[in-house]
Design goal:
mainly alpha
Length: 73
């Protein structure tokens, strides 16, 4: 997983990689022996495998509004 994060950091800091086409980016990732999930996400645009590799879980924020009685705006 750390290699994947390092690879994402490298992509983000290199403008030629950041603006590369999906084919160019996936070819680069294959040359650099990136994880299959990252390579697949770059090629297809489907990040579900990458999320699974990184352990991503959806966190729902409670929808609470605060109102103090007796105050006016």
């Amino acid at each position: 997983m750390l290699d994947t994060i390092d690879m994402l950091e490298a992509i983000g800091s290199d403008a030629s990689l950041r603006h590369a086409t999906p084919n160019e980016l996936s070819a680069f990732l294959e040359r650099e022996h990136a994880s299959p999930a990252l390579t697949s996400a770059a090629a297809s645009g489907d990040s579900s495998e990458l999320f699974a590799e990184l352990g991503y879980t959806v966190m729902h924020v409670p929808q609470v509004s605060q109102y103090f009685f007796g105050t006016t705006s």
